[in-house]
Each structure stands twice: as structure tokens, then as C-alpha cells.
């Protein structure tokens, strides 16, 4: 199951600044996890590819999952591996700065119920995450 979220980048922010913001893993974790309780570096290199254990508050309660962030020249890849009570869930996203747009392509894997719930959550919350990342790039 896939989704694409696109957000216009204001002309006051250049691509390099937004990409640098995406490459800052602490900033990405804060933007991706609005209910963040804690996170811990597990392995890798924080300047290229790193895996974190993230504990986040969700509508269904507190959950802990692995998040891998991989910096690429035009953005970042994020990979969530979670094991909610209803089955395993993988959310792979490619965040790219394309011209004057921040484009996120999301692939969701899991059982039917998990995928449907995750897709609804992605489509509801990720535009807000885009806005937050753009605001952080402006700061």
C-alpha cells in the first residue's frame, strides 16, 4: 500500500537548507514522532545511516519501534519496523526535495488491518510533519 505526500517549499528556503534539515536525525525524529517519549541510538553513523529505538505515544498507547534514517543526496529515507499487538508493520518512506516541493513516497507493509490503519495515519499526520520540517529549516 503506498501514498505520496507533497508540500510546496516556500521560496525563502533553498533546497540545500531543507536537505540539511532532513539530514539532521535528531530533527527528523522530533518531526516524525510528535508524541516522542524517548529515543536511543542503536547502531550506524548518525551522519549517513543510523538505527534508533524510538518510544512514542500513539492513540492506542505507548509503542516502541526501530527507526532507520539514511541520508541521500536529495533527502532522506526512513524505515520504521514496528510490532504492534495486531501484527508487524513496516513503513518505508523516501523524503526528497524535488524542485520547489518536498515529496514523500511511502510504502506500508503489514496485514490488511495494520496497513489500512497506518495509511490513514500517514495521510493525516505526514502533511503536518512536512510543515514542521519546513519551519525548522527556516529557523
Describe it for me?
Helix content is 32%, strand content 48%. It has a 7-stranded antiparallel sheet with strand order 1-7-6-5-4-3-2. It has 139 residues and is an alpha+beta fold. It starts with a strand and ends with a helix. The longest helix is centred in the C-terminal third of the chain and has 27 residues, at 112-138.
Index terms:
single chain, 139 residues, Alpha-D-Glucose-1,6-Bisphosphate, Chain A, domain 4, 3 helices, alpha+beta, 7 strands, 7-stranded antiparallel beta sheet
Helix-strand layout with pairing:
Blueprint: E1 2-8, H1 15-23, H2 25-32, E2 36-45, E3 49-58, E4 61-72, E5 75-82, E6 89-98, E7 101-110, H3 112-138
Antiparallel strand pairs: 1-7, 2-3, 3-4, 4-5, 5-6, 6-7
Helix pairs in contact: 1-3, 2-3
Task: Write a short abstract of this structure.
The protein is an alpha+beta fold and 139 residues long. It contains 3 helices and 7 strands. A 7-stranded antiparallel beta sheet has the order 1-7-6-5-4-3-2.
Roughly what fraction of the amino acids lie in strands?
over 45%
**CATH superfamily, called what?**
START domain
Runs in which pLDDT lies below 50 for 5 or more consecutive residues are none
Question: What percent of residues adopt helix (DSSP H or I)?
Answer: 25-40%
Protein structure class: alpha+beta
Q: How many distinct folded domains?
A: 1
Main beta sheet strand tally, sense and closure: 7 strands, antiparallel
Oligomer classification: single chain
In angstroms, what is the radius of gyration?
A: 14 Å
Coarse shape: globular
Domain DUF7053: 4-138
Protein name: DUF7053 domain-containing protein
Pfam families: DUF7053
Amino acid at each position: 500500500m503506498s501514498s505520496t505526500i507533497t508540500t510546496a517549499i516556500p521560496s525563502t528556503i533553498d533546497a540545500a537548507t531543507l536537505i540539511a534539515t532532513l539530514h539532521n536525525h535528531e530533527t527528523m525524529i522530533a518531526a516524525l514522532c510528535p508524541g516522542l517519549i524517548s529515543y536511543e541510538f542503536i547502531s550506524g553513523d548518525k551522519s549517513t545511516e543510523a538505527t534508533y529505538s524510538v518510544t512514542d505515544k500513539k492513540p492506542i498507547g505507548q509503542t516502541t519501534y526501530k527507526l532507520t534514517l539514511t541520508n541521500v543526496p536529495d533527502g532522506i529515507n526512513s524505515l520504521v519496523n514496528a510490532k504492534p499487538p495486531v501484527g508487524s508493520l513496516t513503513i518505508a518512506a523516501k523524503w526528497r526535495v524535488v524542485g520547489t516541493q518536498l515529496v514523500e513516497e511511502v510504502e506500508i507493509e503489514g496485514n490488511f488491518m495494520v496497513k489500512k490503519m497506518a495509511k490513514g495515519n500517514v495521510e493525516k499526520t505526514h502533511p503536518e510533519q512536512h510543515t514542521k520540517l519546513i519551519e525548522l529549516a527556516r529557523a
